[in-house]
Amino acid sequence: MGTSGGRRIEMIGTPIAHVRTPDLLNGLFQRDGEALRVVKKRLGPAALGDHLRVLRKDRGVIGLVVTTPLKTAICDHLDRRTALVALVGSANCVRFDGGSWIGANFDGMGFESALAGAGVALAGKHVRLAGCGGAGKAIAARIVAAGAASLAIEDGEPGKAADFLLRLRRVARGCALSAGATANRDYQILVNATTLGMQAGDPSPFRPEIVARGETVVDIVIGDSPSRLQRDARKLGKLFVGGTAMVQGQVELFRRFLTTAASSETAAARALQRSARP
Q1: Distance (Å, whole) CA 94 – CA 257
Q2: From 40, 71, 137, 238, the catalytic residue
Q3: 2: Cβ–Cβ under 8 A, 6 or more apart, which residues?
Q4: Is 71 among the catalytic positions?
Q5: What does the pLDDT look like over 205-229, one tens digit per residue?
Q6: In the chain, how many H helices and how many E strands?
Q7: CA distance 140 to 208
């Protein structure tokens, strides 16, 4: 799909062929008669700076939806950040307010919405999260804000989870935090926020015996075929929540943030709630 002409939003990242967000947003715009469209732009970190310099001069682009692996890198190019983006250091939505770009992150809200749609609340739960990247950090912040009893974060990069937890503890509100799983604790909710499962043959971030002791499994990865984690969860009779539900939980929030003057994720959510009232 081309990127020239008309008012538009770019979705940037790589790989990007499989993402559903542009189609979902375009469906909303078409339904409501808005002369706005979302276009995909395959883009890696090395080309990000040059591309954004071009966009600074393009008055047809009103904002960005950002996916892997650019959610952290995009923050270096923002003029303003929501409090959440300042905390987690990643953004997946950027609105161009004239010459001032503001970044927000709706991964956590989408995650919570997906769980709620499956009848699962985070309050009081013990949660184990694999992956401390751009999406993982936003999800972690939402887990804490929603009143989980504990959160264990693990990441393949040494020290990454521990460094983030130093910041997250400032807003933990009684949620017990740990870098790595706590011995002898069964986690009710298991979350995969790594890229494992994107490629056929990828291993699961959780061994089957860990899945067996859980209740709900969330895999935010959207691959071409069911991931090993999804197959294990289904085989063991666990409630499974996939990445598509998380995307669907963010689409209307993206729209509100990108097309209004909402100054934060919460403001976008409130605007959406008001629009839904009869």
Answers
A1: 8
A2: 71
A3: 39
A4: yes
A5: 999 999 999 999 999 998 888 999 9
A6: 10, 12
A7: 23
∠ CA(83), CA(87), CA(91), 5° rounding? 75
231, 206 Cβ separation under 8 angstroms: no
Q: Is the pLDDT assigned to residue 151 strictly greater than 80?
A: yes
Helices (H), the chain: 21-31, 45-55, 83-88, 107-117, 134-145, 160-168, 208-213, 228-235, 243-259, 265-276
- CA-only gyration radius of the chain, Å: 18
Residues 6+ apart with CB under 8 A from 90: 71, 72, 74, 75, 105, 133, 134, 135, 137, 138
Residue type, 200: A
Take residue 17 and report the two structure tokens written for it.
């062929």
Domains of the chain, first to last: 8-105 (3.40.50.10860), 108-245 (3.40.50.720)
Segment 161-207, tens digit of pLDDT: 999 999 999 998 899 999 999 888 899 999 999 999 988 899 999 99
Using CA atoms, how far apart are residues 243 and 272, in angstroms rounded to an integer?
21
